[in-house]
Every structure is written in structure tokens, then in C-alpha cells.
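Hi again,

Forgot to attach this to my earlier email, sorry! This is the prediction with zinc ion bound. I've pasted everything inline since the attachment limit keeps bouncing my files.
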Amino acid sequence: MSHGPSPAVPSVALGPWEAIGERTWRAVAEPESVTIGLVAGTGGALVIDTGSTPAQGAEIRRTAEAVAGVPVVAVALTHAHYDHVGGLAAFRDLPIHAQRQLGAHLTDPALLADLAPYGASAADLPVPTHTFGVAHAVDLGDRVVELISVGRAHTDHDAIAVVADARLIFAGDIVEPAGPQLGPDADPERWPGSLDHLIGLMLRPDWLAYPGHGGPMAMADVTLQRGWIASILGEVTNLVSDGIRYEDAEQRGDWPFPWQRIAPGVRTAYDLLAARGFAPRDQLPIIRKDVRED
Ligand SMILES: [Zn+2]
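C-alpha cells for the complex follow:
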């Protein structure tokens, strides 16, 4: 979903870079507490996600070069929500890596509405120069970072950045310790299967996923969240069977995450089932309304 700023524009600030592995760092950028990744090699550094505003992007680039001791030579994006791409303008002279479908979302009205309070617009969102469908490696000299499209989940273009030699993954918003955000652009049906990519990569000891928001997650945490996300479509299926409509779903359903984080995704689940002819009925199908009215 879009992590929209409140009407009063919240303060933009970048926290310190924290070392989390061999020449690998993260920083937390406010106002959305978004994780920014940094991986350095002999050939330069890769920044993963860019913060919320052009000025924040510039601060990320400047401080990243100070801590890494090498120039930033590329940027990678996990998905096109404002708190991840808002700083892109500061990297427009560099290769911009993203899943193939991300570029089309840089003109989404919801994204531009999120950026407007900060004085940023579509002109501040250069399109990715290096796109990929499934996977793609960024060469940093003596090491590579692999970018992998996991499939539809939080958006239709989620990508993760795998730093194999540091045994960690920058996962974007496909997992969050506080619970996933199932916004209007999320896919509640495919999301669990998409998380299998991440889980498969973590089937080794000591790997950690660094989500787009919140602290690191171990494989058990990611696997548990996969199950909870899968339960959402299952619960919607149960509710539809019981004739309960979306409008009553918050009260009548049993949800694994706070309602406000998943409400648009529950709506999408209802729409998915309705498109297959599975919708709440007004009464038992013995006396079907359409037949009765004939
Ligand atoms: Zn997001």
C-alpha cells in the first residue's frame, strides 16, 4: 500500500548507518522508518532503496559514500512506494536497477500524491535503466549482489536484494515484523507463494532478512508470516461461505494482523473470489433469488 504521509508533513530524517555484515550497512529513514541498504565492493557501492524525498536521497548518497569509503555506483529498488523511491532524483546519473514492471508505477497517482507534500513530482523519479524479469546480478568488483523478483506480493513488482557473502537479504516490504501491509496493490493470493522464494534462499543457517520496515527476521519469522498471510484468503473464503460481506468482515472475521494493515487486501480477496462466481449469498441457494424473480 502507499504509506501516505499525514496532512501535517512529518519530519524527514536519516538515522546512522549500522554495520550488519561484511561491508554491508543499513540505515533507517524517517518519516516511514524505511530500511535503506548499502553494500560495498572494490568497484563501488550499491544503495538499496532511496528514502522518501529527493533531499533525503542526496543525504543517503553522501553519507553512504562516507561510511563505505567508495563511490555509490548503482541503486536498486525493492518496489515503487514513495518511501522507497522518493529519493531517486539524487541517483539519476547512476544505473538504476529494478524489476521490469516497476517503471510503469512511477506515474501512479497514489505515489505522486504521497510525494506532493514534500514538493516532489514525477520529474523527480527517473525511470530504471537496468531492469530484469526474474533475476539480475549487480557486480561490485570483488562481490555481487543478486536482485531477485519474487513474484506478486506487496506489489506486482517486488524485488529482494541478496547479499550471499554476508548471508542476508534486503527484502523490501514482502515481510514486516509488525505485519505486512496488504494495500490495494497487494496480491493476497500469490503473496504466500512469492514468500517461498525468500524462504528458499534462507534455508541455510544464520541468514537474516532485513525488511523494508522494522528489524531483521529469521527464517522462522518469515515462514510464520507466510502462513498468516495465506490465512487471510482462507478466512475470506470462510466468510463468503457464511454469507458475510466485506462490510462486516472486520467484525466477523478472525485476522492475523491489525485490520488497518490488511483491509484493502481483504477487499481484493473478496473481489478475486467474486470474479470466480464465489460471493456471499442473501439466502440459502435452495431458493435462489435470480430463480425466484424469474
Ligand atoms: Zn511498500
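The chain has a mean pLDDT of 94. The domain at 13-230 is CATH 3.60.15.10 (Metallo-beta-lactamase; Chain A).

That should be everything now.

G.
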